[in-house]
Design brief:
The structure holds three protein chains of three kinds. By secondary structure, chain B is mainly alpha-helical. Chain B has one domain. Chain B is about 80% helix and about 0% strand. By secondary structure, chain C is mainly alpha-helical. The chains are: A mainly alpha, B mainly alpha, C mainly alpha.
Amino acid sequence: MNDLSLTAALWTVGSRDLLAAMRHRADLLTTLIFFALVASLFPLGVGSETALLRLMGPGVVWVAALLASMLALTRLFASDYGDGTLEQLALSPHPLTLLVLAKIGAHWLASGLPLVIIAPLLGLQFDLNADAQLVLLASLLLGTPTLSLIGAVGAALTLGVRGGGALLSLLVLPLYVPVLIFGAGAVEASAAGLGAGAHLSLLGALLLVALVFAPWATAVSVRIAVE
Amino acid sequence: MTINWFRYSSPASFYPIAGRLIPWFFSAAALLMLAGLYISFFVAPTDAQQGEAYRIIFIHVPAAWMSMFIYIVMAAWAGIGLAFNTRLSSMVASALAPTGAMMTFIALWTGSLWGKPMWGTWWVWDARLTSELILLFLYFGFMSLQAAIDDPRRADKAGAVIALVGVINVPIIYFSVKWWNTLHQGASVSLMQSPTMAKPMLIGMLVMALAFWMYSIAAMLMRLRAIIIERERNSDWVKALKERQS
Amino acid sequence: MNWGSAGEFFAMGGYAAFVWGSFGVTAACIVVEIIVLKARHRAAVRALPANSAGQP
């Protein structure tokens, strides 16, 4: 793959991951069902008064999205690590940071975007109105890429490590806190009539910070793992 | 004259130095702690609003300071270890983590015991307490990751990455929780609500913070010596050490 | 001096459980950490492979 230009290499890596994700549609479906299931458990646990549901809806949908996207993270590098592809990527002449970014992008398209798309359905369960639904959609659209970026660092660090799944959640969930606060906060603020602009801008800022640091940290972690 | 600092950065030559430093740091910690306790119980006057309960401040605030300071120092040493491939700095980072986690626990525990009489509840989702709780999870993440990796060099590097990512996140977490908190409860309840802190209070807190600082260094050095022996068990100088002791 | 008697000192103006709970747990943490560290160092030294090369 030495004669590939950088853009071609990125395109190859990304489309290959997307194809693999399409071939394993059952995995994607599991993540989506998990997302819906977690969100549906909350009303059963705390009661179903409409006022209460409307109040906790944004937070619940966001927490469920957080957990679902974390569940999908283990698939980001695992198979490439198992069959040695990751090692080849690390040896390629192209910057690993960008190759990793392509992989994260493909992973978000295959597992993050579907979460965003079905989120309004879960919003209906919590009786969110049209405005809140729109803000929920926007906040998830801005927030889930950040989750994938931060999560990629944890996924790369736990490659081939004992107790990977539980360890991954311990590493990644504390780092998700700001995204959760601003994501759920955006919907709550718009419901309270304050406008979601500030929250959404902060979510965008988090995304930019994650875009700068996370691919680099992930590339370092991948090198550590394949060494 | 130039001193060859790299000579001291090998575990073999630092091991005896650490052994000689430990008693000094422990004595300094003990003396400062005695002075700090004296100030906190006998010099500092009773607080007009909070009565005697405010005396918890003399360990709560220093422990909270140390918990954050140790995390930053730990990430710095881990980062140096990652960048320059120096084993000793990575070991220092691993040796700091449990003490930092303990400081975080003390800060949370005392905060809770202070909150009960003052706010009537063991826990509030105050920005400080919440970020301290997340800091505890960050420490646990660092330690669990290192414990789960068998190869010590890989454990060092992986730990460094997660510590550095954590250090970028700590201020973001703090400000996000703070913002969230003010939106939910209006003005948040502040621990330092006395407008002008009495001078003995400030001095007491500083002395206690110094004591915790010296103690943390001593504990770190003790753990560092154990880690050095555990990791270098097959090297000649450690074997020679064993012979000398037996 | 803040305290009239030792009893007053230990009562902490009614907040004894909270104040002594804080200082006591902190002291316990420090003592336990030192004991654990001493034990870890001893165990590390004891676990070293016995070097029989030069020994009679």
